[in-house]
Specification:
Distance between the termini: 25 Å
Strand order of the largest sheet: 1-2-3-4
Shape: globular
Order of helices and strands: HEEEEHHH
Number of strands: 4
Largest sheet: 4 strands, antiparallel
């Protein structure tokens, strides 16, 4: 998705990430486990609440809880470089795959 592409302003990125309640993020928690954040909502950015406060739900179903998201960290520029599926397919071990990242 181009929702947070480099050419967009912080305001545009924030709107892109929070306008659709079906948005899902895969993020790492403090123990480096991948968790799902979903249903993001901006509780700010209005005249009565000028400061953005972005929250989302963590986990699914009856165990879901709300979490406050660090807006600056969420919208920070990040460049991901992924090897092609063909390059990964030619690897015999995890070490070979790790070497692709170099």
């Amino acid at each position: 998705s181009l929702a947070v592409s480099a050419g967009k302003s912080q305001k545009e990125k924030l709107r892109s990430l929070t306008e659709d309640v079906d948005t899902v993020f895969l993020v790492a928690d403090d123990e480096k486990n991948i968790v799902i954040l979903h249903s993001p909502k901006n509780f700010g950015g209005m005249r009565t609440r000028p400061t953005n406060k972005v929250a989302a739900m963590i986990r699914l179903g009856s165990t879901a809880n709300g979490v406050l998201i660090n807006e600056k960290a969420a919208l920070e520029e990040c460049r991901l470089v992924m090897p092609t599926i063909d390059a990964i397919g030619q690897c015999a071990t995890g070490i070979d795959i790790a070497a692709l990242a170099c």
